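Dear colleague,

As promised, here are the two records you asked about, laid out in our usual form so they can be pasted straight into your sheet.

NAME FIELD: protein one
SEQUENCE, THEN STRUCTURE:
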Amino acid sequence: AVEAGMFVDSGMFPERNGDGIKRQIDGGVGANSVVARDADYFAPVCSHFGNNHVPSQYKSACEAIGGCTLCRPEKIVYINELDEEDCVDRRMAEFQDHQAKNMIRPEVQWYGDGYVVVGMFVPVDERTAEFAALEIAKRMNLEEAEVIHKGVMHPSEGTFVEVKGRFLQDIDPKSLVIPKKVVTLSDDEIRKDIKARPLKIVAATVGQDEHSVGMREIIDIKHGGIEGFGVECLYLGTSVPVEKAVDAAIESNADAILISTIITHADIHRTNMKRLDQLCREKGVRDRLMLVAGGTQITNEIAVESGMDAGFGRGTKGINVASFLVERRRKMSAAKK
């Protein structure tokens, strides 16, 4: 069948027009390269594919050679690089000062080689996008830039381009401003607190926004949401007026309002958050309601500036929100004493 070209064709299936890929049984690449093992074949290693006929005088296969490298790793002999000029020792010697100061530089193949990959969408044809991307990389101060991938997303839209280049500047970790990492309470502590003091929230995607996936991820028990910690959730849906969210929280005697605001045109996300804070103050409930906002463009800093108690962005999980609600409620209770 293989010789007749019936086994693999050139991809015109189901039609067959004599386009099969033929292979000779007694010739061609790899012919006579498979050698049958002797009946008493023995390999003195412990990890072996196929039948290994270990002589009866040995308890293990590698006993015949005093242990294989799998059983005795110390038998592995380190062989240094053969080229004395192009070797790791010489390359590392160039960066002794760099290492001593704990400087940071991206790398791929060698220490401190500086290679980075930048992905970008360029709204022009493929050919123009390629050279535009190289110019962009040049202005980003990337050296030795080259296009490693390009693909037309749609002829009327543009091209996605990936550029490889070298970023040869050092970053001093001492100069970095790194915000303090928020410590999340444990699952058990959150559940214990909410069981002792039931917690109810009202959730909605506000404004003229139909996005729902993010909010459902945060509240739905199926996605590890806050329902799983015992939080009672009243979900109002999408495109909910801010006023409705506040009224629902008051009517249900909720402890918090969670809003999702994805759309950011004309800073509408900031407007929605400020409006929520303002309405709660006008109705005299701001001091008892926790206000939380989330969305792809939301940060805690933006949310707090806009009157929220906290903001959550990309990568947020239900436990992050649940932990905040529990800790915030504790602080509010302590402040009233």
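NAME FIELD: protein two
SEQUENCE, THEN STRUCTURE:
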Amino acid sequence: MTNIPVKTRFAPSPSGAIHAGNLRTALFSVLFARHHQGQFLLRIEDSDSTRSDPAAIEGIQDDLRWLGLDWDEGPGEGVAVEQYQQSARRHFYAHAAKTLVDNAHAYWCFCSEERLSELRMTQQAAGKPPRYDGCCASVEPDQAKARLAAGESAVVRLRMPDTGGLAFDDLVRGRQSVDAAALGDPIIQRADGSAAFLFANALDDALMGVTHVLRGEDHLSNTPRQQILLARLGYAAPQYGHVSLVVGQDGAPLSKRTGAVGVASLREQGYRPEAVINYLARLGNPTGDEHLHDLDGLAASFDPQRLSRSPARFDFTQLDHWQSAAMASLPIETLLTYLELATVPAAVQASLAELVRPNLHRAEEINAWAMRLFDPAVVPIADESKVEAAGTEFFERIEQILDNYGDEDWSTLRPRLETMTERRGGQMMKPLRLALTGLSHGPALGEIIRLMPTDIRRARLQRAMAIAGAKPNA
């Protein structure tokens, strides 16, 4: 797809925490760069001071680092702020805007908000899309300078072609074309002198050597404008690819302002970064590969042409699937860093982690299982009726065998328990599991019996006998 050195970027606005849709775009940009042995750049687009939250800048970087989406270029220790943060790069934009005006590629627009509002309403009433009518495009440069010197407020607009068609090859959607007359002349510099998104975004891509841009489909209409803008400044435009938007269960696009699924929220819920990455890498990207991969593994097969053009629905069920896969492959030494219960002997901690790992949704849940197996405290029983129905004699016979239990294999112990209790399969194991752990499901029962200290096991069986021997309430 490319024979030039690849540089992609992620350029979030710090108006809040990044959500799953933003993150997927960043991930795709990382995967594309790695697939082509290129570089990934992070830039903070805070040119609009009314929407920027300085506290969000560090949060964005923390979220990316937690997920392993490290950048080759971008903010960091020893890096000048003006290199990758737009609020400190205004002189670049001001110079470029002046160049465009001086060369008649842009012009000062003095139209008031009232006039623009009336224009939009008139166009909409006529069934036409709202676009600027070029009212100020013919204002002579000397006249514009005089009006500015008199203190009149004005913005700078890019002068777009009035006729003809504009086309480009989208990395995701293929050949795209648009009628130039439908674009209008976009604002590139606001009345306060700050650069508009469309302008600063494109100029920084050029100045920073970005070669490929993957972004949301809501930016599709910006592409021809930005291509013309860069051409007027003598820069080559990057190749653009527009990915489908991520929507919630209600079908609405994820948004920072509507409390969309955020990285910090997923982290607080205990999701593993590798689970989030593997899920998002496949969201709207049907790979047919069900294996858990690291970033390099995901990058090896990444192809933007394979991405779906339809909205991608964020589904926690699918995320949970990848969370289970991530937990199943979590190194034991990593899982043990979450173990807090002091009563678990050091000699069996690794065995405990190995046993319960397939049953964990979050790494912190190892402590709940440690409590059920090693804490003398009474654990609640999920279904006491099944313990009561098993009867006192059932647990007495279990206790007789387990009191003389050495360390025999479950394949030997289970037949003995079934013979002694005259119950087989679930009829024997379910009430025993409930008595020992309080739950009707969980890790291998034989391993639970082997790991559980004798005094705790005996206390749990004695409690089960008491429940089974109690008379039902009248």
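A couple of things worth noting about protein two: Residues 20-35 form the longest helix (16 residues). DSSP finds 21 helices and eleven strands in the chain.

Best,
R.
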